[in-house]
């Protein structure tokens, strides 16, 4: 078994792990930058929100639900023209970031919206009574109060993106998924596939543990 892991394969394994980290990290960051404001708007424009707008909320929510409910493998193929436009190619690690971000943003938006719904309405009413603006309500009341839930949602998203990145690797996205398919499956090396699975499990465990620790720290505050 150990003879399989030649220096060249170990080097490839390290490069594939780095590609997975890049895909998950960048798409998680971009997904958060898009998804958090989107989630805030969905909450503000919803019933009981300070910017209530039923029509806009329905439209934005419909788009979010449409993207979120699309299986990732279909989304991956459906937005290939956009991927080529933004990344210059439809294969490779950089290209995989585009569909991963597209999958992450609406997922984060709904998790953020759900966290904001848990904020005590009395706090918002008190802020409005003191003349707080919408931006002050968002940045001084809603986001600080919902921060532990938002961090927990981001952790869940990163874990999901890890699985999505492996799926992206199966069609040329690089990373551990690509390594597992090309060597573990196509070249009949089950020990490589097992190693890929073990590393992915360890990575997900590390992400989840870090997220849980951050949530505990924020909750105590």
From TrEMBL:
One of its GO terms (biological process) is D-methionine transmembrane transport. One of its GO terms (cellular component) is plasma membrane. It comes from the Bacteria. It holds the Pfam family BPD_transp_1. CDD domains: TM_PBP2. PROSITE patterns: ABC_TM1. Residues 17-209 form the ABC transmembrane type-1 domain. It is a multi-pass membrane protein. It is found in: Cell membrane. Keywords: Cell membrane, Membrane, Transmembrane, Transmembrane helix, Transport. The chain crosses the membrane at residues 20-44, 56-80, 86-109, 150-172, 192-215. Belongs to the binding-protein-dependent transport system permease family. CysTW subfamily. NCBIfam families: PRK10782.1. This is ABC transporter permease. It comes from Ramlibacter humi.
